[in-house]
């Protein structure tokens, strides 16, 4: 599993120059502020030059300052309580039309996710779903709605889908008891990460099932148990995270599965339409 920024800094701290140590301490002791500072502002805060900050980002393994800043924000999201998240995000949200601010931020998250999704990995996820003996789907806390949306739609087209609902930890693992080779677990979690989701992924990996994990980054604790890792940007939008980009990834998975099995799925929906019509499921006005 990839190291988060705190682990990277801790690993290299003894070799840092005095200026680099000031940057490191500024990040670790004030990450809620550093997450929103430009390189120039972080430099001024640390009493070093902007170029020293940029070189520091590269020194600890990032492509540049924007990537390091994103890593600080990921650290921020895992450390803060809900009330602290509200305070931090309200401080940095722009004044004015919050509807525009939040929706434009969601657009940027989808764009970032699109640009950074490995198409080969995405295709592996589609192929795994298409050829799974059984598909287990799990998400708790805020990710429960992602698992519900995915399972609802997959259950319309496949008979081998099983959504694992979180009633108790014991029941979760009882329902996963038979998972094994040839099966697929689709599990999602975003900061603050669910311990149950992590344990579910570990259990499925131990049982030799294919684990598709949808999370926010390669430093997520889910990543270490994922045979197929899908990431989607999900920054704070107040006490709640935005799940717009993760939902877009799920929509793309569903569309890809449907395209690969077009004839079979079309025939299935023709039967479903007749069933819905017979039992008056949908309003016709």
**Alpha carbon gap, first and last residue:** 53 Å
The residue-averaged pLDDT reads 87
Taking the sheet with the most strands, its summary is:
5 strands, parallel
- The quaternary state of the protein chains shown equals single chain
* Rg, Å, rounded: 22 Å
Q: What's the short story on this structure?
A:
This protein has helices at residues 5-12, 18-29, 31-34, 39-46, 50-59, 65-79, 82-92, 98-116, 119-130, 144-157, 169-175, 195-206, 244-260, 262-278, and strands at 135-139, 161-164, 184-188, 210-215, 228-231.
Explain this structure:
The chain has 285 residues and is of the alpha/beta class. Helix content is 58%, strand content 8%. The chain has a five-stranded parallel sheet with strand order 2-1-3-4-5. Strand 1 (135-139), helix 10 and strand 2 (161-164) form a beta-alpha-beta unit. It starts with a helix and ends in a 7-residue tail after the last helix.
Question: Which short descriptors sum up this protein?
Answer:
5 strands; 285 residues; 5-stranded parallel beta sheet; alpha/beta; elongated; 58% helix; 8% strand
Helices, strands, pairings?
Blueprint: H1 5-12, H2 18-29, H3 31-34, H4 39-46, H5 50-59, H6 65-79, H7 82-92, H8 98-116, H9 119-130, E1 135-139, H10 144-157, E2 161-164, H11 169-175, E3 184-188, H12 195-206, E4 210-215, E5 228-231, H13 244-260, H14 262-278
Parallel strand pairs: 1-2, 1-3, 3-4, 4-5
Helix pairs in contact: 2-4, 4-5, 8-13, 9-13, 10-13
């Amino acid at each position: 599993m990839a190291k988060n920024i705190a682990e990277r800094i801790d690993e290299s701290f003894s070799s840092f120059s005095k200026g680099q140590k000031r940057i490191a301490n500024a990040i670790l002791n004030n990450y809620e502020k550093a997450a929103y500072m430009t390189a120039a502002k972080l430099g001024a805060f640390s009493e070093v030059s902007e170029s020293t900050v940029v070189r520091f980002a590269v020194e600890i393994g990032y492509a540049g300052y924007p990537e390091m800043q994103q890593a600080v924000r990921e650290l921020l999201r895992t450390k803060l309580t809900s009330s602290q998240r509200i305070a931090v995000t309200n401080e940095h949200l722009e004044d004015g039309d919050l509807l525009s601010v939040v929706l434009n931020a969601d657009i940027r998250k989808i764009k970032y996710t699109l640009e950074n999704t490995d198409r080969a990995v995405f295709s592996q996820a589609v192929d795994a779903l298409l050829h799974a003996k059984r598909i287990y789907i799990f998400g708790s806390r805020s990710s429960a709605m992602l698992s519900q949306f995915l399972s609802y739609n997959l259950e319309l087209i496949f008979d081998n889908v099983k959504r694992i609902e979180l009633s108790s930890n014991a029941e979760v693992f009882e329902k996963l008891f038979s998972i094994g080779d040839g099966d697929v677990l689709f599990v999602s979690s975003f900061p603050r990460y669910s311990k149950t989701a992590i344990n579910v992924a570990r259990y499925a990996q131990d049982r030799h099932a294919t684990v598709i994990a949808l999370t926010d980054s390669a430093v997520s604790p889910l990543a270490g148990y994922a045979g197929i890792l899908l990431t989607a940007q999900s920054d704070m939008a107040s006490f709640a995270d935005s799940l717009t980009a993760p939902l877009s990834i799920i929509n793309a998975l569903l569309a890809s599965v449907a395209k690969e099995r077009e004839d079979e799925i079309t025939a299935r929906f023709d039967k479903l339409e007749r069933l819905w019509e017979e039992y008056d499921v949908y309003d016709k006005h």
